[in-house]
Amino acid sequence: MAEDQKKKLCRFWIWALSSVAFRLILISFPGNLNLSSRPEVSTPLTSIRRLAEGYWLKQASMSPYAGSMYHGSPLLLSILGPLTVQRIKGQPSHLLCSLVFVIADILSAMLLRGIGQKLQMAYGLNARLLGFLKSSRDKVILPCGDIAALVYLWNPFTIVSCVGLSTSPIENLAVILALCGAVTRRVPLAAFGLVIATHLSLYPATLTIPIIFLLGYGLDAPPIKLFLQTRSVEKEETSTSTVSKQAKLKQTTHLPFLWKTVAHFLFWVLLWSLYVLVLSALSLNKHGGLEEMFKRTYGFILSIEDLSPNIGVFWYFFAEVFDFFRNFFLIVFHVNILFMLLPLAIRLKHRPCFLAFIYLAISSILKSYPSVGDSALYLSLWALFVNELIDMKFSFFLFCGYLGISLLSPVMHNLWIWRGTGNANFYFGNAIGYACFQIVFVVESVSAMLNHDRALKRSNSNHREVKS
Amino acid sequence: MASLLRSLIVLLIVQSFLVAIAFGSNEVEEFSEALLLKPLPDRKVLAHFHFENRAPPSNSHGRHHHLFPKAISQLVQKFRVKEMELSFTQGRWNHEHWGGFDPLSSMNAKPVGVELWAVFDVPQSQVDTSWKNLTHALSGLFCASINFLESSTSYAAPTWGFGPNSDKLRYGSLPREAVCTENLTPWLKLLPCRDKDGISALMNRPSVYRGFYHSQRLHLSTVESGQEGLGSGIVLEQTLTVVLQPETTSVESNMHPSWSLSSLFGRKVVGRCVLAKSSNVYLQLEGLLGHELKNVDKEIEAHELWKNAEFELSLKPERVLRESSSFLFIFDIDKSSDSEPFDLGLTWKLPSKWSCQQAPLHASRFLMGSGNERGAIAILLKATESQEKLSGRDLTNGHCTIKANIFQIFPWYIKVYYHSLQIFVDQQQTTDSEVLKKINVSPSTDKVSSGMMEMMLELPCEVKSVAISIEYDKGFLHIDEYPPDANQGFDIPSALISFPNHHASLDFQEELSKSPLLSSFKEKSLVRSYTEVLLVPLTTPDFSMPYNVITITCTIFALYFGSLLNVLRRRIGEEERFLKSQGKKTGGLKQLLSRITAKIRGRPIEEQSSSESPAAQSSVLSSKLIFKIILVAGAAAAWQYFSTDK
Lengths: 468, 646
What we know:
heterodimer, A: mainly alpha, 22 helices, B: 3 domains, six-stranded antiparallel beta sheet, 27 strands, elongated
């Protein structure tokens, strides 16, 4: 048994290291790959060229946001900016940046593995508590942490966005850091990750809800009702008095919510965001300060000023829509992300990690400037739930869809932009297809998770019937 | 006859008296006209019309003008214009053959389309407003779309890269403006004789617009009087430069074609504009005669030069002036009359060859890269042959250097990466600080302002070529922002390359103030050359698609919202059970109703079991439902009431 485990572990490390080696090989000749200018990889927010331009402007004592080029965080500029100009002789120009992104990817994978191990333990524990999946079926629990880490490391999307010099590996790292902190109950770490992720790309702000659930209720578990039922079955065996049973039920219909931890978390969020704001203000104090930063980063994200093509659907919509309706549709599209937060939170509050995954997937569909780096993040988070989502429908269809889109997208882009034989509709059609596949993916994941809970309930009641 | 003369004299005296009263000073408004003709080495002929109108400083109450166009003086007074230049150009100035180092080319070689710059005499905060108003006024005055320069995306505020150093300078250009006779007519209206009399009568529209290059320019500057109570005087300089191809009849291919005014313009000068103080015709011949006539005495030249072995003029010049490499024949058109019109002609007898003096570096600009996503702009400066001969070299630290300023405007849809600026000197990449002495960049903001780049290069004199490249991304515009012919592409205005250490001047060493044309040649003017206008094709969206795109995108949103909400809401087992128990007991209509109510509530009732009858349940539900409906209707009515009230 132990030997088997060791072998598995060994295999994991081999795969992980080989993925790192693969990345290192790829970054040693990025000039030929030319990935950094692909619209799928680098958006106006994550492109390293724009970051280099921002850094150049800052060095020339201008605001880095002058000229509608750079729209990222001023902190990222201070960290990555010097690396864009430093060159090692005989090496490709952005080697140092690439190394940073590779390290970010490795860290993300390791953190994902940590999250996965926690989730796996919780899954096993819950299964045992509910009284099924006894020892004989223990083996079925897949090591979801290892799987997620490998999915993250070997996902072509991740590799492409790491080698293609977009800053999304760093954004992903911040998101995973927040989740990891929440899963391991390190409150300051969770708050730090959340604040940084929000600072970098705004959308992870939605993760506040799952992180609060994680800290308040604990890790993903089957619905509380099931526990109550099992407990009541056990109780029934011992005592037949109905009065006491009802009293018990009333006492425990709600899980204890750890208000203290959540308050602690909110306090840390406040602290970290103050810290980040002060740092940003210091780095921008000569160039318009925080107001300029919010206008040029969050304002740019929300008002969708850049209409260059990407894999989302907004660019073409706002290039075509009548100016009169522009504000209306901006509100409608952004509110669409917010609308689903509450229903999902109510329905999936017992599975906060899964909720985080769904939120990330939704925001990567409805983002103003999506890139494949966002998809890479939610796909690897999805791999954390392989045990629960094993019965997911359409998985082969979705796999083929993702594959087809990622092959067709460069072709359509080439036809339109480079050859001029196609028009914008070719590429937009592709973007629509991608959005559809992502929507089906999200919907099927939610449905599979709910079905899994149902199945648990059914098996539990069967179990009870057998018992009684 | 005598009485006529006497009355004329009296009239003149009265007139001058009136003028003196009107302006409260001894200075009077002056107008002068001149035409410079110059054969070019590539068998073309350059004709440069020059009109100068001076309004002396006057007190602010006297706004009446004798000769000076009222429209222009009102413009100057209203918008407080200190200096302004407007040019309409069609065709490209050929720097190689037509010269690049003389005052004529440095002042009259203009970029294609409309170029306007102005310096204002207003507080810094009002400069933009003044500029906007000025563009509108000029647009109306010259029947051109100069008002497009109003938007902040099309003009810039150069600091030092453009000639005059001022922080109240605004510069804009419209490369695509078509220039034609509707722009020339209002321009001619500013002349006291229009095109009815004098030299301007030569401007026969078909022959002017048949040329290879024509540029009409209007330059005005205010002259401070220095006296209290007096306003500022205005100098209005109007020039029209045309390059024409004379019709050649000679069989020999290396002979320069002979021409006359009537063959070039199809018209003759029948007399001077009576309002002009001076009206002269000049003929400038460059370089060619130097070697033959070096030893000839000056006195002999003047008399003999106009008829020699090489060429022959049809009229005898008044005077001949000589500069280092060129001769200037001066003709007075006073003597011409209806019976004896002035028709200057030049007949070549021998094939001859000469070359023009050129700017130290020849500038050209081109685009690199393919596709509609990104590209690079390259400016190439090539050393010209005449570089060795030039004076004006700057010997700093023992090195001979040429200074070159590059001024370039980028429209916002050309998103330039300034960090990608590369400079190659003699095909060797150099680090920026070696040759780049100064750079000033103001990046463009999307849909708000255009970008501007000013560079000062200091190059070694023996440089052969300098290439500057800068990368850009092409922007994607909203469909409304594309012009009607979107697929033609967008123009990037010309870059201006000027050489601050080189000044062009022609000094004919005579009569300092007599002829405004010659005195303007004598002033040192900055050597500058404009590059080509670049045409950048931008990707277009499908212009016929807005409705399709809106509907399809909204369908996707509906798919997302609907299917996700459906999955969240669904409770398979319970729903079925509920429907089954309902179906047993109630009729079709009630079942439907309860189904709807269940849907609306989103959560079917779980325990149907014993206490309540389903009928009672549904009635309770329907009362709730009715209450909800009433609530919604009330809200709607209130909304309607309040919205119509306003």
